Amino acid sequence: MKLIIMRHGQASWSAPSDSLRPLTKAGREEVRKTVGQLKGEGIDRIVASPYLRAQQTAAIASDILGVSVDTLDGITPDDSPAKAIGQLPEQGNVLVVSHMPLVSALTGLLCEGVPYGGPGFATANAAVLDLELPAAGLATLQKMLPA
């Protein structure tokens, strides 16, 4: 299976709470650019954090890729990467839309077996991982896609 871990696009700081920060115009454009590069990955499912900016990122990806979006409550910025792994689908090619620091920690845990040392993610960056099933240390990082 492939697991593509993507950080949401650039978001505004002007919002009543962190969970309600919307994408900026530039953020929507950088998401379109990254998702355009993911067209050949065979993505058949998208899972996203419930935060507005992740939902908006996932909606853009859904429109471009023609696949549905499911919301996972346990993939917000401060959630545990170990618990997040337990919520991920175990088959298919899945795009996961979330936040820093979780995207970095999750990538580190899946590839290296530890939640630190994962790659840095600018907004709308994506890590394409190859793995048999989501578990610590079992993934291989195929590539990082810049925004």
List the helices and strands and how they pair.
Layout: E1 2-7, H1 25-37, E2 45-48, H2 52-65, E3 69-71, H3 81-87, E4 93-98, H4 102-112, E5 126-130, E6 140-145
Parallel strand pairs: 1-4, 2-3, 2-4
Antiparallel strand pairs: 1-5, 5-6
Note down, in words, how this protein is organized.
GO terms for molecular function: protein histidine phosphatase activity. One of its GO terms (biological process) is regulation of phosphorelay signal transduction system. InterPro entries: His_Pase_superF_clade-1, His_PPase_superfam, PGM_Phosphatase, SixA. With 147 residues, the protein is an alpha/beta fold. The protein has one domain: Phosphoglycerate mutase-like (Rossmann fold), CATH 3.40.50. The protein is 31% helix and 20% strand. The chain is built from four helices and six strands, in the order E-H-E-H-E-H-E-H-E-E. Helix 3 packs across helix 4. It is globular.
Kindly summarize this structure in a few lines:
The protein is an alpha/beta fold and 147 residues long. It has a single domain (2-8, 19-145), classed as Phosphoglycerate mutase-like (Rossmann fold, 3-Layer(aba) Sandwich), CATH 3.40.50.1240.
**Gross CATH architecture:** 3-Layer(aba) Sandwich
Strand count, sense and barrel status of the largest sheet are: 6 strands, mixed
Ranges with pLDDT <50 over ≥5 residues? none
End-to-end Cα distance, whole Å, is 23 Å
Q: What general outline do the C-alpha atoms trace?
A: globular
The total of helices stands at 4
